[in-house]
From TrEMBL:
It holds the Pfam family 7tm_3. The chain crosses the membrane at residues 530-551, 563-584, 596-622, 643-667, 687-711, 723-743, 749-771. It comes from Terrapene triunguis (Three-toed box turtle). It is a multi-pass membrane protein. This is Vomeronasal type-2 receptor 1-like. One of its GO terms (molecular function) is olfactory receptor activity.
């Protein structure tokens, strides 16, 4: 029976979208397609692999677009759409695998689809690191190494030459973005600086390309790392040539290092000396002849071959419906200028391929082509290994057979290269380090100057001979083999240093500038408002004190211990005014006293309130006594109250002193959240001490609440206990909501949250404890009598 293969390869057509100057047919892609056919024929002819089985294939053009890729993948899987008649397999032949797609972005799209069915996809050029994730792409494997190795290799190269100041350019796709990201992570660890990071647009846009050119021009970095496919890169290189940017050394990723699209002799003054990484090459036996053996006469209904012929010879094939270089998308985008007019010259069929120089026929740098070959053989060998396994009943995951054998494939190629797929579907990484030099015939030659291999323990990089490298620097050009030039080159690359802590680099990255310091200042709106509110609060408290003083002999005032009331007023002023310590530039002293003052203020306030509530409870008991006893009782009580306040204050002072002497707070320059800003804040030193200090306040508050709650039903002075209960509730609500709010804010707003809580709780207490009484004293003097207070008519013993 026959098996089908699909090569979702990137051929033709889309070049017109991104390129005006190049023909729209992708000769390189066509070579890959032909190499696949060649490999399949080899498998079919060989007796040692799949002796009784013939492999067939479908070819789908992805046109470099995700939509076409998805369309092709689905068409292949479902057999719904047979648009390429010449490549159709006989109906009913089982589908085996997808080979492709070209670029990683396309492969990610198609591999997600085939992955659903656990249907194998073997990539030959998709090198993006995410494809190694077997949760996302369970059925993907590849014959090109994962790009992480290449990014590491580039970083190693940069370190090897001692460069510390480099620019990066990435294509706007998964290949470019992931490649550059991993590269940056690696070099930044060794203190190498990135001068600029630019992205080349996927859809041609002159403005965006000029912006990249501008960045290159303005930067002092002479080393530029480019992660991009040749097709995306070529419009940029054209502009580089137009703007005459020389003296840069380009570090090439595998996708453009040997591309004829970029390595044009007329670009040599800009790009000469480029160093890059190429995957292992292999000279496939018989491929050249096979490539030459292409003719529309032998493929009458094959649109690709006809289009190839028309483009290669700039003629129109008679009676064909295949448009000559007219891609309808060009009309859609309105960029007519890229359309070549239909050539009125008819093809004779006698044109000689041997006579033309064409990327398609260039077999000197077969790297990706060799990967295509390996991909076909990976599938063939895996098929060969499964003799007894029945698909769907296989003993392997998801009852599949083929995936199991694919993941365990191991074979040697004609080159004696061992191809072995690992658990992630990856192959062993080995790169040639390539340098662009001009040869005698005036063309760019790709000279191998070293190798990079992934080994069991790390990796090894070898540069054979520094002297053999051509450098594209003004001083080195004339004597490319001199070691001296190499050192002069080093001085060309600017050194860079990390900026000191309080500084960060400016946008040009050539100077360190002082970082912006952030804190809650007095003169900003928020700071001023908060301070004003706290001052306002302090004034109210003061006015209460004055009212109390003036009416000191009235019943309401006397009913409470005047001393205690005064202490509460004092403590509220203290807490309200601590907000001044929180606003403004944090200093060592303000950091140290602000929390302590606050805690002391609150403990004074709360212990006085506690004294009051306890007194209320006891007064009830005392109300059954006679007058003389009552007098004693009340003075005893007053003494006990003051003792209580004193003891609480002593405890709190001890805690505070211990805190300040053991682990005091200090000013802290927080740079964790923002790189360009320093947040000046107080570090609280010891959280444990801080919690103990405020914990004691909480303890007092809880006691106040409980006693007030018990006392709230007792007949007392103007519902005092009720108001205190209410005040304590406010206090708790404020501080409980403070905790999450405080923990979830950053920078100066942390301080704002704390001031808010201070103000809210102080106003709460003030409002609940003093305002009702002030109301009675000032506005309802008729109620300000003993009778009302104790609820019955008794004479006042005081
Ligand atoms: N990986 C690229 C695509 C790509 C490519 C190439 C395209 C690579 N090498 C050579 C054309 C020619 C390497 C990707 O997207 O993963």
């Amino acid at each position: 029976f026959r098996e089908n293969h699909a090569l979702t390869t990137c051929v033709a057509l889309l070049l017109g979208m991104t390129q005006e100057v190049h023909s729209m047919f992708n000769f390189r892609g066509f070579r890959w397609a032909r190499a696949m056919i060649h490999a399949i024929q080899e498998v079919n002819n060989r007796l040692d692999i799949l002796p009784n089985i013939t492999l067939g294939y479908h070819i789908y053009d992805t046109c470099f677009t995700t939509s076409k890729t998805v369309e092709g993948t689905l068409a292949y899987l479902t057999g719904q759409n047979e648009t390429m008649p010449n490549f159709r397999c006989s109906a009913g032949a089982p589908l085996v695998a997808v080979i492709g797609a070209g670029g990683s972005t396309l492969t990610i799209a198609s591999s997600r689809i085939v992955g659903l069915y656990y249907f194998p996809e073997v990539g030959y050029a998709s090198s993006c690191s995410v494809l190694s994730d077997k949760y996302q792409f369970p059925s993907f494997l590849r014959t090109i190494p994962n790009d992480n190795h290449q990014s590491l290799a580039m970083a190693e190269l940069v370190r090897h030459f001692g460069w510390v100041w480099i620019g990066t350019i990435a294509a706007d796709d998964d290949y470019g973005k992931y490649g550059i990201k991993y590269f940056k992570q690696n070099v930044e660890k060794s203190g190498i600086c990135i001068a600029f990071s630019e992205t080349i647009p996927k859809i041609f846009s002159r403005e965006k390309i000029l912006a990249v050119v501008e960045a290159i021009k303005e930067s002092t970095a002479n080393i530029i790392v480019v992660y991009s496919s040749d097709i995306d890169l070529s419009p940029l290189m054209e502009e580089i040539a137009n703007s005459n940017i020389t003296g840069k050394t380009w570090i090439a990723s595998e996708a453009w290092v040997t591309s004829a699209l970029i390595a044009k002799p007329e670009y040599f003054s800009f790009l000469g000396g480029t160093i890059g990484f190429g995957v292992r090459r292999g000279d496939i036996p018989g491929l050249k002849d096979f490539l030459l053996d292409v003719h529309p006469d032998n493929a009458a209904s094959d649109d690709l071959t006809i289009e190839f012929w028309q483009t290669a010879f700039n003629c129109t094939w008679p009676n064909s419906t295949v448009p000559y270089n007219t891609d309808f998308r060009i009309n859609v985008t309105g960029r007519e200028s890229g359309v070549h007019p239909v050539s009125d010259q008819l093809c004779t069929g006698k044109e000689k391929l041997e006579d033309i120089k064409n990327t398609y026929l260039d077999v000197s740098e077969l790297r990706i082509t060799y990967n295509v070959y390996k991909a076909v053989f990976t599938v063939a060998h895996a098929l060969n290994n499964l003799d007894t396994c029945v698909e769907g009943n296989g003993p392997f995951p998801k009852n599949s057979c083929l995936m199991y054998y694919l993941k365990n494939v191991k074979f040697t190629t004609f080159d004696n290269e061992l191809v072995k797929i690992d658990d992630n579907g990856d192959v062993y990484a080995s790169y040639d380090i390539i340098n662009w030099q001009l040869n005698e015939t005036g063309e760019i030659s790709f000279v191998k100057i070293g190798i990079y291999n992934d080994t069991k323990d790390g990796h090894e990089m070898k540069i054979y001979n520094n002297d053999s490298i051509f450098w594209n620097t003004p001083t080195l050009k004339s004597m490319p083999k001199s070691i001296k030039k190499y050192f002069m080159y080093l001085t060309d690359a600017r050194e860079c240093f990390p900026c000191p802590d309080d500084y960060c680099s400016n946008t040009l990255k050539n100077e360190c500038v002082l970082k912006e310091v952030e804190f809650l200042a007095y003169d900003e709106a928020l700071g001023t408002t908060l301070v004003a509110v706290s001052l306002f609060g302090a004034c109210i408290v003061l006015s209460v004190t004055i009212v109390y003083r003036i009416h000191r002999d009235t019943a309401v005032v006397k009913a409470n211990d005047r001393g205690l009331s005064f202490l509460i007023q004092l403590s509220l002023v203290i807490t309200l005014l601590t907000s001044f310590l929180f606003v403004g530039k944090p200093k060592e002293w303000s950091c140290q006293i602000r929390q302590v003052t606050l805690a002391l203020g609150f403990s004074l306030c709360l212990s006085c309130i506690l004294g009051k509530t306890i007194a209320l409870l006891l007064t009830y008991r005392g109300s059954k006594l006679n007058a003389a006893e009552k007098h004693d009782h009340i003075s005893m009580q007053s003494f006990h109250q003051k003792l209580l306040v004193l003891i609480s204050m002593i405890i709190e002072v001890c805690i505070c002193t211990a805190y300040l002497t053991c682990i005091p707070p200090y000013v802290y320059k927080n740079m964790e959240f923002q790189n360009v800003k320093i947040i000046l804040e107080c570090n609280e030193g010891s959280i444990e001490f801080l919690c103990t200090m405020f914990g004691f306040d909480v303890f007092l508050a809880v006691l106040c609440f409980i006693t007030a709650f018990i006392a709230r039903k007792l007949p007392d002075n103007f519902n005092e206990a009720k108001f205190i209960t209410f005040g304590m509730l406010v206090f708790f609500i404020v501080w409980i909501s403070f905790v999450p709010a405080y923990l979830s804010t950053r920078g100066k707003f942390k301080v704002v949250v704390e001031i808010f809580a201070i103000l809210a709780s102080s106003f709460g207490l003030l409002g609940c404890i003093f305002l009702p009484k002030r109301y009675i004293i000032l506005l309802k003097p008729e109620r300000n009598t003993e009778e009302i207070i104790s609820g019955k008519a008794t004479t006042n013993d005081n």
